[in-house]
Specification:
Blueprint lengths: L9 H16 L15 H18 L3 H12 L2 E5 L5 E5 L7 H18 L6 H6 L1 H4 L2
Antiparallel strand pairs: 1-2
């Protein structure tokens, strides 16, 4: 049985609606959750552009700048191993939704201001993207 439905898609809605009716008729226990939208392609391109500016300013590679930004600004989460030992990890940008990515980029931009490296806003990037990606 399909467990994820995009209700903006007519085909998915046509499959989902009869299932809901069936669940209601059987008084089944069902869990529904909204799946947040993953970060957008535009957010990713913008982030990579500000990483390039940051790496040019600091002398780090873009990958090194990315890793440092993750270390300082990404949300931490903890997972427990089968034997009960806990480990802490940083959320990867590819796992962030649009709101989380937006908040993360704001922290990176604020850090840029702190060290004297101006990182353009998303609107400035959209207006001057050719210049930003040189």
């Amino acid at each position: 049985m399909k467990t994820q439905f995009n209700l903006d898609n007519a085909f998915d809605r046509n499959v989902f609606n009869p299932l809901v009716s069936k669940f209601l008729a059987n008084r089944a226990m069902v869990r529904l959750e909204v799946i947040p939208k993953p970060r957008s392609g535009n957010q990713h391109r913008y982030y990579r552009a500000i990483l390039k500016i940051l790496s040019d300013y600091t002398g780090f590679t873009t990958d090194e700048a990315h890793e440092l930004c993750l270390r300082y600004f990404a949300t931490e989460y903890t997972k427990e191993t089968k034997n009960g030992k806990e480990h802490t990890f940083k959320q990867r940008t590819s796992d962030m939704d649009t709101a989380e990515m937006s908040e993360y980029i704001t922290k990176v931009r604020d850090m840029g201001d702190t060290i004297g490296c101006y990182l353009p806003t998303a609107d400035e990037y959209l207006t001057n993207w050719q210049e930003c990606e040189k």
